[in-house]
Amino acid sequence: MTASQTPPHTNRLIQEKSPYLLQHAHNPVDWYPWSEEAFARAQAEDKLVLVSIGYATCHWCHVMERESFEDERLAGYLNEHFVAIKVDREERPDVDKIYMDALQALGQQGGWPLNMFTTPDGRPVTGGTYFPPDDRHGRKGFLSVLQTIMDYWHNKRDDILHNAEAITAHLQQQASLTAPAGAAWDHAGQDAAQAMYLQHFDARDGGFTLQPQNKFPPSMGLMLLLRHHQRTGDESSLGMVEHTLRSMVAGGIYDQLGGGLSRYSTDYQWLVPHFEKMLYDNALLVQVLTEAHLATGKPVYRAYAEDVLAYIQRDMTLPDGAFCSAEDADSEGEEGKFYVWRPAEMDAVLSPEQARVAKAYWNVTAQGNFEHGATVLHTSRAPGEVAAELGLELDAMTDLLQQARETLLAARAQRPRPLRDDKVLTSWNALMISAFARAGRAFGDGAYTKAALRAARFILTHLKSPAGRLLRRYRDGEARFPAYLVDHAQLAVACLDLYEATADAAWFAEARALMDAVNALFRNEDGPYFDTGSDAEQLLARNMEGYDGVEPSGNSAAAQAFLRLHAYGAGESYLADALRIFGGFRQHLLKAGVSFPAMLNALDFHLAPPREVAIVGDPDAADTQALLDELRTNFHPRTVVAFAPPERVADDAARIPLLESRQAVGGRPTAYVCRGQTCRLPVHSPDDLRAQLAEG
């Protein structure tokens, strides 16, 4: 369509900012955004509702749009008999959660697009994920589904209403969680999760065979296994982490040219990915790579963490410093087309010797491993082995490979790019802020810390209502939707990470304010925290999520933030808040820990108990930096660190109780190692600090 052509159809979604909703703004379907207006019309006209949920970089959402929602015949039937609502699940995870739970209650496997049919007042009736347009291979097509549901609505309405009542009652019962008082805790849940990971570990290709056919990056689980290894010395835990990380970054799931991780692999070999790239996956990957580097001292993990961060800074950072949400799997209507290569395409842009090395190292062959003879780049042999095969010195091959990578990346940049979903989501940005802050601290790279600071300042400036309420999404000058528990809690964790990276007590104050807002808006006196605020739209159920799916749940992030604040001495009530979260998910943590790894990591922090370290000294002095480096460059996941120069201790202690009464003894940089605010004798050398940190 040229700029001068007017689209034949335009619906209400044209007024929205969501890239996903805008993708559907010119469908012949008479779409509504999620709104009271849509349900009011459904009730006035006695029509069932289609709530269709997806996101901008969802491949099968694109397929169903092309096949069904752009089809005049199907759209006409849908418009005549239903009220149709489009929802961006990333803007409205609360709506998505309710209807995804409903779909699973109906015995179906979840996924997107999620198409749920509801009564005129929004109670779920039936649904599914992707529907082909017409009956195909024994599977009902979308038109048949619409016709069948209409027949039931006219002829078996009582059955529909009865089922809707039953599903709604189930959702409301499922959302009710309470925490038993006085529960005792130990590491049984972590040990059981480790055993389950070991049972499902793929010893050949790394990762875990927890889903049929596909493998998802298990970053939160790998962080749990690093903690298990440090606590127990179990080498199998560390082995699973290292083998999985190395296999993923060698596979097609990792972008060998541009850096960054795709959403999942469609096979157990990490070879052919589902090519969309999500901000949260890459934030969590950086976090676990940074931890693996600290835990093992191996530079390979730092190198890949930096490679991912380079991708984020190059392709996923907006001019004002905030981070985009995702990149699509599709370009030019084909999944993966932007990323794959053929031998002739490499020959056209590389020198003969560069092409020889690149094709050998990344396994590019005439047969290919993807559609139409194309190859998803991956590595299967060590550089030294490839160099020997090619008759090259390792250094020479490494240089040629780096030259080829830069040239191929530049050539790829000239291809039509996949859609970039440039909306800014608070919790996803918070995960990447933590990734940059932790990497900046661990690697001593101030540029990473500055990137984290820019993004955090953007969120705290632009994602606030006039009344100061944190908001969920920003795009194209508009901030909208009251933030959820996960937004507040994950941003609080990021602010604590920024405090430890910068020693600026203002970030500690921001974290505390965010968690106080959590208690004001999301608190449940009898159990875990609600996902939605007390000021939010009332839906069919007010959920309390603990499952760590694609990102840490709001309750998992809240537990971590509360416990870290408590370790800094900010108040005993924060400990009680965290314990109430654990209590509400007790049976899940004990029996299904692989689905709750971030929450188990928070529980591990509590059970340690955490070490509280206060350091006072001149920040420009080498001996002060030596004390700080002991904490920065080693793996201390159960430690909080407060730092201030002598002249600032009193002011910072007003916000951070751990700094109260600390001083540089004898004018020398001084470290205080405490547990439960009870401290050992102050020390001045890295060796003495290391010894105290190692004590049980």
General description of the model:
This protein is of the alpha+beta class and about 700 residues long. It folds into 4 domains: about 10-175, 3-Layer(aba) Sandwich (Glutaredoxin); about 190-330 and about 420-605, Glycosyltransferase (Alpha/alpha barrel), CATH 1.50.10.10; about 340-415, Arc Repressor Mutant, subunit A (Orthogonal Bundle), CATH 1.10.10; about 610-695, Glutaredoxin (3-Layer(aba) Sandwich). The protein has 27 helices and 19 strands. The strands form 6 sheets. It has a 5-stranded mixed β-sheet. Strands 17-16-18-19 form a 4-stranded mixed β-sheet, covered by helices on one side. Strands 8-9-12 form a 3-stranded antiparallel β-sheet. Helix 18 (about 445-460) packs antiparallel against helix 19 and helix 21 (about 555-565) runs antiparallel to helix 22. The chain starts with 18 loop residues before the first helix and ends with a helix.
Write the layout of secondary structure elements.
Elements: H1 19-23, E1 31-33, H2 36-45, E2 48-54, H3 59-69, H4 72-81, E3 82-88, H5 93-105, E4 114-118, E5 124-128, H6 142-155, H7 157-174, H8 188-200, H9 219-232, H10 235-250, E6 264-265, E7 273-274, E8 277-278, H11 279-296, H12 299-315, E9 326-327, E10 330-331, E11 334-335, H13 343-349, H14 352-361, H15 383-390, H16 394-412, E12 420-421, E13 424-425, H17 426-443, H18 446-462, E14 471-475, E15 478-482, H19 485-502, H20 505-521, H21 554-567, H22 572-584, H23 586-591, H24 597-607, E16 611-616, H25 622-632, E17 639-644, H26 649-653, E18 670-675, E19 678-679, H27 686-694
Parallel strand pairs: 1-3, 2-3, 16-17
Antiparallel strand pairs: 2-4, 4-5, 6-7, 8-9, 9-12, 10-11, 13-14, 14-15, 16-18, 18-19
